[in-house]
Design goal:
Radius of gyration: 26 Å
Order of helices and strands: EEEHEHEHHHHHHHHEEHHHH
Strand order of the largest sheet: 3-2-1-4-5
Strand content: 5-15%
Number of helices: 14
Distance between the termini: 64 Å
Helix content: 40-55%
Shape: globular
Structural class: alpha/beta
Largest sheet: 5 strands, mixed
């Protein structure tokens, strides 16, 4: 046990697979440990590097192992897959643990920072809200589709539907019978309950954004509201993990996908990798910034107006979302306040002058 230098752990609900190597990279231990004995096994181990995939419960186990004195590293699953023997064709827990252990030993491997309980608690609010919004959208589409079967065609838009739904359900001129009307009214009652849950979660997220100093600085950016600011602070554990704003934008999947070779640069659509929830919020904020840019006169807004005239609305949305990601990195990593008229220093121009 004293010879172990690095341990790869494949997490599961009940049985964890462990793969440990010594300083010579020789395999020391290959075994499965049940969940109830997992921490006690590591408590009897000398402090070493423990690597796990960034998956469900990974942050919880990382905090527990860190408290025992171990150095914990969380690896994105897509970075582990190339080190698994046999590739995608042969996969089991033992091979996953070995691949995690191997990936953690690479000198240039990228890791996921461990989230604190406070950050995960905030993300609970966001994920519950997202789930309720998806349920409400599915319910609204179901009600609209069922009424359409009886020739009741309602206008597009959730707000217009909310105003007219009950009136059309209670309209005696359509072909709905009593039980069908009652079923649709139960759907309306569920819709109201979902609205109340979403409103309560919005208040909790708003309280977090208004009381968190980092979130308050994020909200200074035009197009970044309470929802985006709260999600950014809770999701980006440490902005200094990125060397620059472009790395954070790439982590969010808002940079072009490359297929370059032979000195020729070929850029395609954005990669859409990383956190899709935060990326979606940034695009919603970018839409707001693009629509309101003509009413402002700061440097950033003038750039948005000129860019829209040159490349069109859709490409401008992507560019503004990318710009917001880089600005948020600077706000979080450097602790600065947002200045819409800030002009970056050009070192080459001073040298040429």
């Amino acid at each position: 046990m004293e010879q172990i230098m690095r341990v790869g752990v494949d997490l599961a609900k009940n049985v964890m697979q462990i793969h440990a190597v010594d300083r010579s990279e020789h395999v020391v231990i290959r075994k499965a440990v049940r969940r109830e004995h997992f921490l006690s096994w590591f408590a009897n181990l000398q402090p070493c590097l423990v690597a796990m995939e960034a998956c469900s419960a990974a942050h919880y186990w990382a905090r527990k192992l860190h408290a025992l004195g171990h150095q914990v590293r969380l690896i994105p699953p897509q970075f582990v897959a190339p080190y698994r023997k046999g590739g995608a064709q042969t996969k089991n827990d033992a091979q996953d643990a070995e691949a995690i252990c191997e990936a953690a030993g690479r000198p240039n491997m990228r890791f996921v920072p461990v989230k604190s309980p406070a950050q995960q608690n905030v993300l609970v609010l966001h994920r519950m809200r997202t789930g309720f919004v998806e349920e409400r959208t599915a319910l609204v589409n179901r009600l609209r589709g069922l009424l359409g079967e009886f020739g009741v065609f309602l206008p597009q838009g959730i707000h217009r539907l909310r105003k007219q739904l009950v009136e059309h359900i209670e309209d005696g001129s359509n072909e709905l019978n009593g039980p069908a009307r009652q079923a649709l009214m139960r759907g309306w009652t569920q819709w109201q309950a979902l609205d109340e849950e979403i409103t309560w979660l919005d208040r909790q997220i708003s309280d977090h954004a208004n009381h968190d100093p980092q979130a308050q600085r994020c909200m200074e950016v035009c197009g970044v509201g309470q929802l985006t600011a709260s999600a950014t602070v809770a999701t980006v554990v440490d902005a200094q993990q990125f060397r620059n704003g472009r790395q954070m934008a790439a982590w969010l999947g808002i940079v072009p996908k490359q297929n370059s070779s032979g000195g020729k640069q070929r850029l395609g659509r954005i990669t859409r990798q990383g956190n899709d929830y935060l990326r979606t919020l940034l695009f919603q904020g970018a839409r707001s910034a693009v629509l309101t840019a003509p009413r402002r006169n700061d440097r950033l807004s003038r750039w948005i107006v000129q860019l829209k005239a040159r490349v069109g609305y859709s490409r401008t949305l992507v560019a503004v979302a990318n710009k917001h990601a880089r600005i948020l990195w600077a706000v979080l990593a450097k602790g600065e306040h947002f200045d819409p008229s800030h002009a970056p220093a050009r070192h080459g121009g001073a040298a040429g002058a």
